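Sequence and structure are kept together here, with a separate record for every protein. A complete record is shown below as an example:
=====
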Amino acid sequence: MRDYRLLIFDWDGTLVDSIGRIVESMRVAAEAGGLPWRDDAAIKGIIGLGLPEAIATLYPEIEDVRGIEIFRRRYGEHYSALESRPSPLFEGVAESLEAFRSQGYQLAVATGKSRRGLDHVLAGRGWLDYFEATRCADETASKPDPRMLHEILVHCRVAPDQALMVGDSAFDLRMAHRARMTSVAVGYGALPLSELLKESPSLAIERFEELRHWLDGDRSRQVLEVERYV
């Protein structure tokens, strides 16, 4: 068991139950622009990318920067309205994060959200100073490029083998692998574990508090959880 010092989390679908709002906002923006319907699986498949990259992947027929920006604005307006009441944390997140902090772990966020979007939701929770570091797709490279993880590691003065990345998308896991970091897949967000296991995560969990058990060294139940899927 490694001696981890830094825990890095994706936001949407990992800490916060916001996937439904993302799907709805994508559909509203598409409908306003006369773009075709995309099913839930297609939309969930681009969650984790920076918003311009996500839009371009989902709607390659939008060929100009202005069209992407219009879509982005419509999406942001609808999502921000929904977030006037913040999306709930997943079960076990609040208690586990507090436990991690009390145990001396540094905590960070690496997200496909914009800086404005992340700051908005962090402010809604009174969490603007909660994490040691945060990185957003519009201020660095989008996932799965490992640049945001490299920047967090430098800021926190932690080596890659002393950090782990926790996320619910294939982009999170690929980014961690490229940064030579331990990766943890969560199966309650955008993608099921059956998809995420294709990215060879170091650990797979179905409930957030299982990460806490694993880090505390109580691995017996977690081994059984992982073995259900491999």
Q: What stands out?
A: Residues 220-225 have pLDDT under 50 and may be disordered. The first helix runs from residue 19 to 32. The first strand starts at residue 6 and ends at 9. The chain has two domains: 6-16+89-227, 19-82.
